[in-house]
Amino acid sequence: MGANAEYVFVGSYTGDKGGDGEGISLLRRDPASGVLTRLGLGARTPSPSFLAQHPRLPVLYAVNELADGGTVSAFTVGDDHALTPLAVQPTGGDDPAHLAVSPDGRHLLVANYTSGSVAVHPLAPDGTPGERTDLLDLVGSGPEPDRQAGPHAHMVRADRGEWLVADLGSDRVWRCRLDPFAGRLTMLPPAVVAKPGTGPRHLRHSADGALLLVGELSATLGWYRPGPGGSLVLEGEVAASGEEGVNYPSEIICGRAGRFVYVANRGPDTVSVFNWDGDQATLVAEVPTGGKWPRHMTLLGDHLYVANQLSQSVSSFRVDRETGVPVALGEPSAEPTPTCLLRWTPMVAG
């Protein structure tokens, strides 16, 4: 397996968030069988709940989801996948929950969840993050007083020369433009004004260009198409799960050739499989994850992997090429309080 092996980094919650993780761990993946092997701890760092990779350099970034002053940490990744610390920078907000590198590799954007802001960090030629060049405060609230008293940035994503920010607190997906020289964001009219109480969490684009949005509070999957003035208009919406009871959907990913959409459901502890035909998402299957509280998942080749936060495990599935339905590969593997899975793409600096 050695020459063909792939590697997956796992983010976690550590003791400061009530978790049992110690930082970022490393798994080896056999692409043929889908089997994961835990290789151990890669780096000790507080609550690295979301991870991202530089588009051209062997550098890994992690948010440190701290309630009283969040940070972002950067590591170089060696040929043996050892992590060497590069820098730690304060994000200017609390509980950073997501981050992304600009396509040109010059900036790192971080979503501060609790404080409802987006930080911009310039990246040096070697990928080291510098001090913030901007901190954009979002505005607004929603009808759910416990979760929407103010803005809560939950995801940042580059989108055709602009940036989208999913804001759970204000029921908005904001549009921003990043100045690549000054490293500052300009707020544009929102891309999405969701139904009150939706709680936008994560989003993806379908292969045919629709914006697919998971509402954490409404427990829905919605899809949007371009409307006037750069806005996106809701074209359809379905329940994220067919199970009864409370659901807080987390991650959304698109499958083979754009035919399938997958949503992880916390509460039912399932993955919903939707057939996507460009106009409608139709639930075709709902598969138990074999664990509790699926916070994140990733699709690698013919295999789906799910991070079950509360049962401290990662579940592995083989995805049927025709039906898109995941089939469990044995029992979940133990992993302390996992929150994010990142397949590492080998790169060479310079």
Structure description:
The protein has 350 residues and is mainly β. 0% of the residues lie in helices and 53% in strands. The protein is built from no helices and 29 strands. Strands 24, 25, 26, 27 and 28 form a five-stranded antiparallel beta sheet that branches. A four-stranded antiparallel beta sheet has the order 3-2-1-29, with no helix packed on it. The protein is globular. The two termini are 29 Å apart. The model has no long low-confidence stretch (mean pLDDT 96).
Give a short summary of the structure:
The protein has about 350 residues and is mainly beta. It has strands spanning about 5-10, 25-30, 35-45, 50-55, 60-65, 70-75, 85-90, 95-100, 105-110, 115-120, 135, 155-160, 160-165, 170-180, 185-195, 200-205, 210-215, 220-225, 230-240, 250-255, 260-265, 270-275, 280-290, 295-300, 305-310, 315-320, 325-330, 335, 340-345.
Low-confidence stretches: none
Helix count, per DSSP? Answer: 0
Measured between the Cα atoms of the first and last residue, the distance is: 29 Å
Helix content: under 10%
Arithmetic mean of pLDDT? 96
Strand content: over 45%
What gross morphology would you assign?
globular
User: Using only CA atoms, what is the Rg?
Assistant: 19 Å
Strand tally: 29
> What structural category arises from helix and sheet content?
mainly beta
Order of helices and strands: EEEEEEEEEEEEEEEEEEEEEEEEEEEEE
Biggest β-sheet, characterized? 5 strands, antiparallel
Set out the fold topology.
Blueprint: E1 6-12, E2 23-29, E3 36-44, E4 51-53, E5 59-64, E6 71-77, E7 83-90, E8 96-101, E9 107-112, E10 117-122, E11 134-137, E12 153-159, E13 162-167, E14 172-178, E15 185-193, E16 200-205, E17 211-215, E18 220-226, E19 232-239, E20 248-254, E21 260-266, E22 270-276, E23 281-288, E24 294-300, E25 303-308, E26 313-319, E27 326-328, E28 333-334, E29 338-343
Antiparallel strand pairs: 1-2, 1-29, 2-3, 4-5, 5-6, 6-7, 8-9, 9-10, 10-11, 12-13, 13-14, 14-15, 16-17, 17-18, 18-19, 20-21, 21-22, 22-23, 24-25, 25-26, 26-27, 26-28
